[in-house]
């Protein structure tokens, strides 16, 4: 998935570079450039960070670094939701279930995201849809997480 996101960035003429970023910063988007912290150790974490930074490209505007500003926090949420829908769609959750994944670790591994990102995805879908969502023959519960096939 990381490679697909890199291709998407290239199509949008966004340069992706690895840099030693300061503090807890793992990624930044500014003026057609995405900087990823070169100290990110796993591909799954890099994928999640790149997706969120692409989310900023598609959904944000201006300097939103100041997180005390409510409009900046709203833009941060929009970018995170974009990344979640791109990486952890309801369809991908069902595919993970159909592949035999039965816990968050297995699902995250199958989808190619971090377990933390997957938990955030379930919390986000819970905020959007409520406790569960019917998708085809499946019920996807968000709190607590679970997937069940309707018979």
Question: How would you concisely characterize the structure shown here?
Answer:
This protein is α+β, with helices and mostly antiparallel strands and 151 residues long. The protein is 51% helix and 19% strand. It has a domain of 86 residues: Arc Repressor Mutant, subunit A (Orthogonal Bundle), CATH 1.10.10.2910.
Protein architecture, described:
The chain has 151 residues and is an alpha+beta fold. The chain has a domain at 2-87: Orthogonal Bundle (Arc Repressor Mutant, subunit A), CATH 1.10.10.2910. The protein has 6 helices and 6 strands, in the order αβββαααααβββ. The strands form 2 sheets. A 3-stranded mixed β-sheet has the order 1-3-2, with helices on one face. The protein has a 3-stranded antiparallel β-sheet with strand order 4-5-6. The longest helix has 18 residues, at 70-87.
Q: Give the overall silhouette.
A: globular
User: Under the CATH scheme, which architecture of the domain at 2-87 would be assigned?
Assistant: Orthogonal Bundle
Q: Which spans have pLDDT < 50 for at least 5 consecutive residues?
A: none
| Strands, total number | 6
Radius of gyration: 16 Å
């Amino acid at each position: 998935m990381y490679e697909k996101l890199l291709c998407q960035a290239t199509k949008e003429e966004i340069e992706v570079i690895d840099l030693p970023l300061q503090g807890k910063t793992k990624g930044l988007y500014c003026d057609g450039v995405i900087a990823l912290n070169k100290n990110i150790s796993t591909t799954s974490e890099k994928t999640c960070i790149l997706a969120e930074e692409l989310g900023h490209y598609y959904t944000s505007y201006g300097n939103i670094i100041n997180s005390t500003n409510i409009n900046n926090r709203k833009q941060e949420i929009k970018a995170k939701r974009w990344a979640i829908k791109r990486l952890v769609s309801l369809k991908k959750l069902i595919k993970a279930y159909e592949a035999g994944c039965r816990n968050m670790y297995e699902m995250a591994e199958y989808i190619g995201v971090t377990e933390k990102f997957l938990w955030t995805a379930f919390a986000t879908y819970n905020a959007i849809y409520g406790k569960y969502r019917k998708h085809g023959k499946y019920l996807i519960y968000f709190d607590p997480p679970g997937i069940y096939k309707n018979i």
